[in-house]
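Please decode residue identities from the backbone states below.
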């Protein structure tokens, strides 16, 4: 009976070792290779323990190697668990990189719709190119945010900012970014709609005309 148990156990360990060896040969990545190597070593150690026994060993002798066998089993289980965790982490990192690539491609296409535009008084904003508005309402985008790969529309904040007096403010208006707090001052009668109308009028005008 003991011989049968030992033979079955040997076959099981050999099967586990072969399985781990196959995974080791087909897995890429230094971290996972190291974990699977450890698992394979533990499984081989377990197999060697059983193969070292023979029919003359008694049940008592088998118990003597039980602790070593259990230790090797724990090490193999832990090594395989570590390999699985490393594989899951690598897969998550790959998915994250793939998502970043998709976002970069989307942004690359989106930013081609815009051009840096002088909106007066030394202020600049990114505006949709004529014919590329995609049915969006006229808007100005913050230059700082755009240059950092994000779209943030400048919002009309009224006349002037800061501690300037009414006289100092004059008739200008402030547009500010809610994301980075950048702000610009433009003429009181300038806004994304009037600016778009001026761009379209200029585009329709015959070449060489003012």
């Amino acid at each position: 009976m003991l011989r049968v148990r030992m033979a079955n156990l040997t076959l099981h360990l050999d099967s586990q070792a072969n399985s781990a060896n196959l995974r080791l040969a087909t897995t890429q990545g230094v971290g996972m290779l190291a974990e699977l190597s450890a698992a394979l070593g533990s499984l081989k150690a377990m197999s060697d323990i059983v193969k070292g026994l023979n029919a003359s060993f008694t049940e008592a002798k088998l118990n003597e190697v039980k602790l070593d066998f259990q230790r090797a089993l724990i090490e193999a289980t832990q090594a395989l668990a570590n390999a699985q965790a490393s594989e899951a982490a690598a897969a998550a990192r790959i998915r994250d990189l793939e998502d970043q690539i998709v976002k970069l491609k989307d942004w690359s296409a989106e930013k081609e719709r815009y051009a840096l535009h002088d909106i007066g008084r030394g202020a600049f904003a990114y505006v949709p190119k004529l014919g590329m508005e995609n049915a969006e309402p006229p808007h100005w985008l913050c230059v700082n945010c755009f240059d950092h790969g994000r779209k943030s529309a400048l919002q009309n904040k009224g006349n002037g900012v800061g501690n300037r007096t009414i006289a100092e403010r004059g008739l200008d208006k402030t547009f500010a970014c809610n994301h980075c707090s950048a702000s610009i001052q433009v003429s009181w009668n300038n806004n994304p709609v009037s600016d778009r109308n001026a761009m379209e009028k200029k585009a329709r005008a015959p070449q060489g005309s003012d």
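Observation: Strands lie at 114-120, 123-128, 154-158, 172-177, 183-187.
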